[in-house]
């Protein structure tokens, strides 16, 4: 089943207004949810939307809250998200980092006490659209074991990096510190599929591609094994120290099952001002053209740069409609 961009956005906006959002804030949040779905990150778009509504109903998301500035030192600022809507808070903070970068070349905003930002890549695309290099990450609930452990005490703490490119064909990587995000695992299970490569352990301690087994155990594999585990811990510590907010450890103690009051970092660097448009354009194209001219393992499988498949999916879904699971979409329509 496929749904047009405008129909999906309209449904999201309708529900958000019903839940108490102003029309303006509902419009922006609905746009972000729909863009995420249109770009193929269904797990953090329409599939995630019902859970967000549950958080609103539980009082874990304040529909009227907006970020408030705590302090600023030069090109660095601390903000409090006041447990507001995660994607609205994140968009605001990346916009503020961009504003700081346009004045100071670089801008950094540390945000505490916020909610799940949905697709972190949205804010990398946002920075690139403004001609900036974007770097942002978030900590999470305790949802991944440290390397060598069985129980979850660290987060899969997604990290996003982006570089602007002409025509909006930006280079963007959006990766969780787990081999697969829980959203991806959920969607794969929903589609009754297996993961393309092992993503965690089953209940017998064996490595597996079965998303249902991985959900049961919660033992997801970190990317690069011990390297992903170490990177997760450092991202959490940096976000905690700079924002003055909660660490993964404290988030895990707040509520046994909910993921909120998170800490996030948003960095923007004015690439156009630092490098100049001509050098920026030639340097990026030179690297990407070289990568795409690599000798292929399979001649029938193209080599993509980070973000390219997102652009292809976006174009296809805008033309054909966004594919949805009928049961999930029916649930949203009935809200």
Automatic annotation (TrEMBL):
The keyword Ribonucleoprotein does not apply. One of its GO terms (molecular function) is oxidoreductase activity. InterPro entries: Mal/L-sulf/L-lact_DH-like_ah (IPR043144), Mal/L-sulf/L-lact_DH-like_NADP (IPR043143), Mal/L-sulfo/L-lacto_DH-like_sf (IPR036111), Malate/L-lactate_DH-like (IPR003767). Keywords: Oxidoreductase. This is Malate/lactate dehydrogenase. It comes from Clostridium pasteurianum BC1.
């Amino acid at each position: 089943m496929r749904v047009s961009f405008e129909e999906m956005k309209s449904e999201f906006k309708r529900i958000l207004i019903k839940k108490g959002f102003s029309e303006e804030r509902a419009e922006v949040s609905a746009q972000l949810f729909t863009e995420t779905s249109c770009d193929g990150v269904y797990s953090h778009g329409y599939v995630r939307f019902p859970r967000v509504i549950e958080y609103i109903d539980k009082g874990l998301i304040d529909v009227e809250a907006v970020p408030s500035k705590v302090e600023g030192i030069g090109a660095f600022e601390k903000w409090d998200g006041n447990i507001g809507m995660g994607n609205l808070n994140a968009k605001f903070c990346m916009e503020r980092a961009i504003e700081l970068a346009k004045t100071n070349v670089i801008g950094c905003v540390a945000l505490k006490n916020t909610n799940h930002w949905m697709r972190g890549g949205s804010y990398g695309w946002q920075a690139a659209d403004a001609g900036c290099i974007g770097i942002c990450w978030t900590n999470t609930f305790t949802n991944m074991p440290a390397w060598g452990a069985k129980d979850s005490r660290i987060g899969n703490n997604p990290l996003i990096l982006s570089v602007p490119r002409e025509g909006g064909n930006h280079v963007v990587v959006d990766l969780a510190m787990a081999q697969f995000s829980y959203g991806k695992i959920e969607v794969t299970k929903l589609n009754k599929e297996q993961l393309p490569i092992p993503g965690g352990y089953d209940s017998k301690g064996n490595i597996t591609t079965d998303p249902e087994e991985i959900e049961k155990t919660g033992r997801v594999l970190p990317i690069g094994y011990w390297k992903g585990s170490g990177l997760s811990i450092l991202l959490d510590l940096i976000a905690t120290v700079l924002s003055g907010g909660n660490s993964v450890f404290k988030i895990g103690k707040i509520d046994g099952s909910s993921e909120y009051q998170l800490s996030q970092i948003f960095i923007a660097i004015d690439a156009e001002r630092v490098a100049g448009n001509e050098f920026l354009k030639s340097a990026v194209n030179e690297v990407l053209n070289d990568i795409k001219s690599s000798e292929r393992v399979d001649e029938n499988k193209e080599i993509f740069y980070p973000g390219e498949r997102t652009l292809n999916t976006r174009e296809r879904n805008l033309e054909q409609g966004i594919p949805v699971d009928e049961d999930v979409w029916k649930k949203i329509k009935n809200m």
